[in-house]
User: Which sequence fits this backbone?
């Protein structure tokens, strides 16, 4: 070929083309097909047990699956001593159980994307400070009498603990009458809680020596010993856990050997010297005046290990444990080494749900997990809420919260409240906390920008008003168009629901009524007796239906009526709880006319909502699928057109933009594949009729007028029948 072949993946300049003769091939990739904006993103505002608060920087977070949800925002309540579901948030507010609990609001919730805005309902802060400690093993430990611990701190030392004391149980003998023993006389003896052993005397067992011999031969131990003219009976286990119990079998036989029926315990400061527990060592150390004088305190650390700490939280505080038999046996390490607070802290976590108490025994739980770096001196500040969160907790004056119930793997900690903890938040204060969290979801830089649906765990009149305002403002200020799914309090009658919905009219408000029953394992694990307020023995709760309604809207395509058969999508909710009111067809007619979505259990199709309506009564804005589909199309237009904003207003660019838009709409119309049809048809106009005059174009304004006819839902199927012997059937020829 008299020239060269050149290939470009862009349009070359004229200068590049003229550089050499030949063939120029330009391979341009077509624009990526427009798949449409997201439609199933749900934003939940509620009270959770852990994680960032919405009002903190980057506080609104997306979660990716159930495990990620638990990691970021915690479970239902907390686990103490392997018992879960304790001290959950939002037991009762506005006279409704679990009104605000985010875990329960998201229970069985499904979405294509899920975002969480956690509400800050704290009543103040507590401060933790670390102590320099040395840890050992979890025991029990085989030790001997008089073993002790020797410690030195920056306060003083070496100082020695009280020594171990342990004496076997000894039933001391008294006046006796060995000579009166008869053949067959029997008494029982139980040593250290073991089985009863019966000692049966013979005719020759009538003096001290023969009686001792018979008893020891029977028990196989040195149970009986000489005590001058009498006999003492001994146990084996040295310590307060050892016992010698004597049982009268033959009447009067115990008196003959100088004893009486009953039990005698061992003595000392441990139950069993051969198996000394961590708790016993903690008690001995904390009761030793010499160690208290140098600020040493013992406690049980994570996984039950022995821990010795210097409770002087100053940065220069130190601790040293000298090698002794007891220190070695307890696994304390390092021995004979001085540890300093500022340089020998291991770091770790202080878990959310850590319990603290004041001097009166009132209890609070921490609201966020703290990650503590190694050698971080503190103090570590964290917000708290009342442990029993029903709106009735009292407060605490500054400096009175001093008891730490749950230790952490950071080491021993001290706790106090630098400032007063307030009483439980009032209902208006709770509303204000929710309003603040909702305001954080309007940040265009937040992940909440992409939320299609707003679901709020708390229901109060103030929250409902603010939820509606939030959805409207999010839509107006450049975020993805937002719908608010809400409803009435549990137990509200039909008549009152229709009154309440009238106060919240908008096609961006999907208003639900009545309630649904669902089984929650986290409720059943404790039951009513152990769990208390809000718990049930069968684990069944009655919940507002706004969560299930949100699931349907988020999972089903936007053009679909949420009142259709949803293929078991919400069948975990197994019963409509009407609180005694009978729902007839007339009730459901009134709900539909009033703009309320109410669940209905069908024996064939399962649980669904009777009518997919918005709370608006404005013509053309009453159906939920119209609002959802309009948002989907409009949000997609923003996604497609945004890259062209502020670009040069050329005819080529305007034509390309229109082409992208028509291509997207054509995929919705799907003329070639009728089963994929999502709209009836569309019209796009960017002519002068749409407003594109030379003047408007010169001002940088480009109009694209779009009309889309959506598909209606098949709300009614009319089957007209005429059946009977006299029915007339006509036949028409081809």
Assistant:
């Amino acid at each position: 070929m008299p020239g060269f072949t050149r290939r470009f993946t862009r349009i070359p300049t004229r200068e590049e083309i003229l550089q050499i003769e030949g063939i120029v091939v330009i391979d341009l990739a077509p624009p990526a097909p427009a798949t449409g904006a997201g439609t199933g993103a749900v934003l939940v505002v509620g009270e959770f047990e852990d994680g960032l608060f919405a009002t903190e920087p980057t506080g609104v977070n997306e979660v990716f699956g159930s495990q990620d949800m638990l990691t970021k925002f915690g479970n239902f309540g907390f686990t103490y001593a392997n018992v879960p579901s304790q001290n959950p948030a939002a037991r009762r507010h506005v006279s409704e159980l679990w009104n605000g609990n985010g875990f329960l609001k998201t229970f069985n919730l499904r979405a294509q994307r899920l975002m969480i805005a956690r509400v800050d309902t704290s009543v103040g802060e507590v401060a933790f400070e670390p102590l320099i400690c040395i840890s050992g093993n979890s025991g029990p430990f085989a030790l001997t009498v008089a073993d002790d611990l020797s410690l030195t701190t920056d306060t003083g030392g070496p100082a020695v603990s009280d020594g171990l004391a342990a004496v076997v149980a000894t039933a001391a003998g008294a006046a006796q009458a060995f000579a009166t023993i008869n053949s067959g006389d029997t008494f029982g003896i139980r040593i250290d809680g073991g089985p009863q052993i019966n000692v049966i005397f013979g005719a020759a067992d009538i003096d001290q020596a023969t009686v001792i011999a018979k008893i020891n031969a029977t028990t196989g131990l040195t149970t009986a010993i000489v005590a001058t003219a009498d006999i003492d009976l001994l146990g084996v286990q040295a310590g307060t856990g050892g016992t010698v119990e004597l049982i009268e079998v033959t009447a009067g036989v115990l008196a003959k050997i100088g004893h009486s029926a009953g039990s005698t315990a061992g003595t000392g400061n441990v139950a069993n010297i051969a198996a000394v527990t961590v708790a016993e060592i903690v008690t001995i150390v904390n009761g030793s005046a010499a160690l208290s004088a140098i600020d040493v305190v013992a406690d049980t650390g994570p996984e039950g290990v022995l821990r010795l700490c210097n409770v002087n939280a100053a940065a220069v505080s130190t601790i040293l444990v000298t090698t002794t038999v007891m220190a070695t046996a307890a696994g304390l390490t390092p021995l004979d080494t001085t540890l300093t607070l500022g340089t020998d802290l291991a770091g770790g976590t202080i878990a959310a749900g850590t319990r603290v108490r004041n001097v009166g025994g009132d209890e609070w739980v921490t609201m966020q997990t703290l990650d503590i770096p190694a050698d971080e001196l503190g103090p570590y500040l964290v917000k708290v809420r009342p442990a029993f969160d029903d709106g009735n907790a009292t407060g605490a004056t500054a400096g009175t919260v001093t008891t730490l119930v749950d230790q952490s793997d950071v080491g021993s900690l001290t706790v106090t409240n630098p400032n007063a903890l307030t009483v439980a938040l009032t209902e208006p204060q709770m509303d204000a906390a929710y309003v603040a969290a909702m305001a954080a979801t309007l940040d265009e830089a937040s992940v909440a920008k992409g939320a299609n649906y707003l679901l709020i765990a708390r229901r109060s009149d103030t929250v409902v008003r603010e939820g509606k305002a939030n959805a409207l403002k999010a839509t107006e200020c450049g975020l993805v168009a937002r719908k608010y799914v809400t409803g009435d309090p549990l137990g509200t009658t039909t008549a009152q629901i229709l009154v309440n919905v009238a106060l919240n009219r908008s096609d961006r408000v999907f208003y639900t009524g009545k309630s649904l029953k669902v089984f929650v394992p986290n409720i059943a694990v404790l039951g009513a007796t152990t769990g208390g307020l809000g718990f049930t023995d069968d684990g069944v709760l009655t919940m507002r239906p706004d969560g299930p309604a949100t699931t349907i809207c988020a999972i089903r395509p936007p053009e679909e009526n949420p009142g259709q058969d949803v293929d078991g999508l919400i069948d975990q909710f197994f019963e409509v709880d009407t609180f005694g009111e009978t729902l007839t067809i007339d009730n459901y007619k009134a709900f539909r006319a009033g703009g309320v979505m109410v669940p209905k259990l069908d024996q064939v199709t399962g649980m669904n909502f009777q009518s997919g309506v918005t709370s608006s009564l404005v013509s053309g804005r009453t159906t939920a699928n119209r609002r959802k589909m309009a948002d989907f199309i409009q949000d997609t237009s923003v996604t497609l057109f945004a890259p062209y904003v502020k670009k040069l207003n050329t005819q080529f660019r305007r034509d390309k933009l229109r082409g992208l838009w028509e291509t997207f709409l054509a995929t919705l119309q799907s003329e070639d594949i009728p089963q994929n049809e999502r709209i009836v048809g569309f019209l796009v106009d960017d002519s002068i009729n749409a407003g594109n005059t030379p003047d408007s174009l010169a001002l940088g304004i480009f109009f694209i007028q779009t009309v889309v006819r959506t598909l209606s839902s098949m709300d009614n199927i009319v089957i007209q029948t005429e059946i009977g012997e006299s029915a007339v059937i006509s036949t028409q020829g081809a």
User: Anything to note?
Assistant: The chain has five domains: 1-30, 41-58+65-123+426-625, 133-164+274-308+318-339, 168-268, 646-734. Residues 168-268 form a domain with the Immunoglobulin-like fold (CATH 2.60.40). The longest strand covers residues 230-238. The radius of gyration is 39 Å.
